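Why do we bother with a discrete structure alphabet at all? Because it lets us treat a fold like text: something you can write down, compare, and reason about line by line. To make this less abstract, here is a complete entry for Pre-mRNA-splicing factor 38. Read it the way you would read a sentence in a foreign language you are learning: slowly, and without expecting to understand everything at once.
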Amino acid sequence: MANRTDPAAKSIRGTNPQNLVEKILRSKIYQNTYWKEQCFGLAAETLVDKAMELDHLGGTYGGNRKPTPFMCLVMKMLQIQPEKEIIIEFIKNEDYKYVRILGAFYLRITGSDIDVYRYLEPLCNDYRKLRRKLADGQFALTHVDEVIDELLTKDYSCDIAMPRVKKRWTLESLGSLEPRRSALEEDFEEEEEKEDNDQPVDEIEDRAYEKDQYRGRSPTRERDRDKRRDSHRHRDRDYDRDYDRDYDRERGRGRDRDRDRDRDRDRYRLREEKDYGREREGRERERREKDRDRGRRRSHSRSRSRSRDHREHDGGDYRKRHARSSVSPRRHGDGLEDGEPKKKKKKEKKEKKDDGTDHPDPEIAEANKLRAALGLKPLRV
């Protein structure tokens, strides 16, 4: 509950006021001892007492990036959201400079563009010294006007991103803001009026003449000015002539360069076409040689097959193969089985006829058997 925003607080720039501080820095502030002990239960009236006790300003410091008491009080102001009149009283407080810086920092975060320029620019005339704690924990010397300039011009201050504001000249052109006047402008005007009242009229006229002469209204200065203008004019004319000459020369070089580039491109194209033609002729020659070799192989295989067929035909195997291929397996087998006994019978008949054992006379047949056993010729009776 102690870290929640006041329910009556209004949203600033469309979000919760505490969201103007980054989440990491916000969590570090919630865990800080100063926040838990000193900032618990503070209101707008009691917060001034804590702001008067400040002796330095800064964002975070050390290795673990501890927040400073100044940053804890800024977070408390975002949480309780004090009224605008209280913030303006903080800024107008001249006795306590850290209270003024605290109010200016809060207004820079939450205020409008017009209020930022209206209430912060007069603080640029405050040159009092301030102590600032750096990131390494060391203290550095600064001034009120430097801190205000940082709030108006920089994007980050005390490790917090500053909301963007419009440029001053934009607000002046819109009529929302009056032109800025320096604090020393009135002093300068008073001194000029005193000098004009003390001096006589003749001295004033002489001084005006001297001013005019110094500004270049005398004849000698006008003559010198005309000479200088003429010299510049001639110099510009010479420069233009030289520039045109150089431009023409560069243009001619560019044309020559383009012509050479086109010539090289055509030459390269012709070379590529020649190389492509040579490669194509080589591929055709190789294809013709392959076709020729293939034809030779076919003719050689045909001649070998013809010679083999001729030899088989001469040996009588051609007929046997043809007969075997033309006859069915059963008939072919039957033919072989029937053909062999026939041949044997013919041989037996021939043998019988040669041996003489088939002679009708039994005696002669027996004698021929004996002679055949002895290896003698048969009897022919």
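What the structure line is telling us, in plain words: The CA atoms of residues 40 and 174 lie 44 Å apart. The first helix runs from residue 23 to 31.
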